[in-house]
Amino acid sequence: MHNESKEYKINRILAFGHENFKPADKNEKTELRAFKNLRKRLINTSSILYFKPIIPLNGKLIKPDILWIHPQVGILVIEVKAWDKNFIRNGEWKEDGKFYGKNDSYGSNPIQEANNFVEKINRKIQKIPEFKKQDLPISFIIYFPNLTEREYDSSTDEIFKNMVPKEFCLFRGETNLIEKLVSRLREYNYVNFNKIISEKEFEPIRKALFPHLSISKINITVSEEDIPVLDIYQENLLHGHWKGYRILRGTAGSGKTVVLIGKAIYEKLKNPDKKILIVSFANSLINDIKTSIEQIINLRKLDISIDDFHIKTVDSLITDLYIKYVNEFDDASEQANILIEKIKENPDIIEESDKYDVILCDESQDLKKDVFQIIKALSKDNTLVIFGVDETQRIYDERDWKWTDVGYNAKGRVTVLKRSYRNPGNILKTAVSLLKKDSVLIEELRELEAAVVSDDILPMREDGEEVEFYIANNEFTKVKEIVENLIKNNVKPEDIFILSPTANVLGYYEIALKSILPEDKIHSFSSYSEKGMKYIPKDKLVIMPYKSAKGLERPVVIVTGVHMLPYKQSKTAKDKKRDRKTLYVALTRAQRKLIITAQKEEGFAVDLKEILM
């Protein structure tokens, strides 16, 4: 993602998809056992093993039993059959092409089945530009975990042996497993399985097969070739959780939102009947999530629609429930409290048809306590709930809760995203250094286990430009000059955010910029704007307050008015810590270039000057 400058290596097998699988019959038990055996035997190979992966193709899903991927070897479909020597001894092939055993139990021709998967996967792979000019071997093998090679050899059923030739088979107890697998793809002696492989080498294959790993980019006209994908660690989160609740913690730009989007698409592809809710605090972020999902659906030609997802702000969710279950003329600010009282009076008030199979909450640190009760009321017994959270970005009043306060025990249920992708190292360092100017704040964040204070956070990029800092008597004129210079240096208006500490000066920036940009290339909004204005157009420079930018990003961000923080109305230490976190949010919106301006050397402008000068 985002032009990584650091190469991360894979030095052992990665296994996805098996963690929460519950076998329904003997065949599925055998498939799971086969997968676990392969994982154990391949433990030291730099490769990926998928259990029952979901691969969309032309509006349908193909689901091979097991898929083994090695970028220097190829892709191997592993078809698993639970057949043993008795099944083969007592079975026969019939005209329908199936092999029947006792009691009319049967199995499809595994060669035909596996070859069908190979042909479909090959067609999908060939659409990816990286593979149009190179040969990527794709083949199959039939795995019999209940049948030994000796038992196969001793079988007198020549019809079976002709239908399933030995060279296509992997048997129980094979000692040369790796050689057997690779022999179905290419000569194994040309492959060094002890070689550590970079994660990036896997990307083209993963991108080709699994569209739910795609990440929507800022430029909506991006080609399929340029679509980035989730990293290996993020992908693992899509497979690892299927019910209960999980807390997904990460610093700004660690990919919390893209993981939630990937999970939503993955769950919908896996089961189109699942009812999925994505909820967050801000209109701008919700609109951005909708745009991202729609873009992935269109670019990857998925047989699902944006209308298949329920994507709402917290306020709209509460209003919808309030209208249905309360339907009284109360002030909008009281609707949540009244709805909660109704739920407390009757915990079963929410109809089953209004509950969800998957609930994904982005920017959960912004939610008030009562919202968590509503989320519980919307959950079924087996609902999966994932909370994306960054306590460092908790910048609103009445949000000083801990997980135990809202009915969720975080112990053992937290996953931390340790890679920071959005911000180059120098930008992230500037933002974190601002937080560290307040030692009490850092200690509080440490108690909350906020990701930003962890020594494990890995900035993935060092390609950012130097952070610029200016003090100017007239910030509006200075920002106009900065934007004019950026455009002269081939920066597009749609690549720029201008962030202000307050909403009441947005119009002044807009007026200043109209002298150098067409009016239709500028968009501004705040929390006071009409709902229809609270969105991020992909083709315009956007001006908005710090808080409205939460969860959003652009290549170039101009953070203005840093001298105004702490705000005049912030009298207590608690208020000033909140203001410091608010500025941290603004600074971490920049993907490539961060420019900071102030009118005078006051407030947090003093801290930033010390950090940068």
Automatic annotation (TrEMBL):
Residues 28-144 form the NERD domain. The keyword Nucleotide-binding applies. Residues 522-600 form the UvrD-like helicase C-terminal domain. GO terms for biological process: recombinational repair. It comes from the Bacteria. Keywords: ATP-binding, Helicase, Hydrolase, Nucleotide-binding. One of its GO terms (cellular component) is cytosol. Gene3D superfamilies: P-loop containing nucleotide triphosphate hydrolases (3.40.50.300). The keyword Ribosomal protein does not apply. Pfam families: AAA_19, NERD, UvrD_C. One of its GO terms (molecular function) is ATP binding. This is DNA 3'-5' helicase II. It comes from Persephonella hydrogeniphila. The lineage of its organism: Bacteria, Pseudomonadati, Aquificota, Aquificia, Aquificales.
